[in-house]
């Protein structure tokens, strides 16, 4: 008889521990926030020129933006500046002609860019940054 009452107590404890009376968790809510970028304080009035629309031979319009000048910046900052301006098709090359890869972009300085700064180009234009190691 003692065994049966011990089993009954054990069964009651197990059922209670299994969550028979556990309160329901509150439902998960998804919150979406929109963040707007603020213009850089270092922007000059020329950097804020509005994009211009051009018509292609096929009749579609292409937005052209002014290409920022990144010559003299370290390669990483130059890439970041171009991407912030909406240019994402980027390539970088060793300006010394040795064909080295720019593994750590912050150790390289941009010596030339193609197309040149100030030109109005579409956002899908390939922009090549020529860089050399800092101190070379």
TrEMBL record:
UniProt cross-references to CDD domains, sorted A to Z: PASTA_pknB
Task: Give the residue spans that cross the bilayer.
Answer: none
Taken from the record, one Pfam family name reads PASTA
Where does the PASTA domain lie? 61-133
UniProt keyword annotations, A-Z:
Signal
Q: Which domain of life is it from?
A: Bacteria
Q: Biased-composition ranges for Polar residues?
A: 35-45
Query: What name does UniProt use for this protein?
Result: PASTA domain-containing protein
Q: Which organism is it from?
A: Nonomuraea rosea
| Record lineage | Bacteria, Bacillati, Actinomycetota, Actinomycetes, Streptosporangiales
């Amino acid at each position: 008889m003692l065994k049966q009452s011990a089993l009954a107590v054990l069964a009651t404890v197990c059922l209670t521990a299994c969550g028979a009376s556990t309160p329901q968790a509150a439902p998960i809510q998804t919150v979406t926030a929109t963040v707007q970028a603020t213009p850089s304080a270092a922007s000059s009035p020329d950097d804020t020129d509005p994009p211009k629309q051009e018509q292609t031979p096929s009749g579609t319009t292409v937005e052209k933006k002014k290409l920022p000048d990144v010559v003299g910046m370290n390669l990483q900052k130059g890439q970041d500046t171009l991407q912030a301006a909406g240019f994402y098709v980027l390539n970088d090359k060793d300006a010394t002609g040795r064909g080295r890869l720019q593994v750590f972009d912050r150790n390289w300085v941009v010596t030339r860019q193609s197309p040149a700064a100030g030109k109005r180009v579409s956002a899908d234009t390939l922009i090549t940054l020529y860089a050399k190691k800092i101190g070379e």
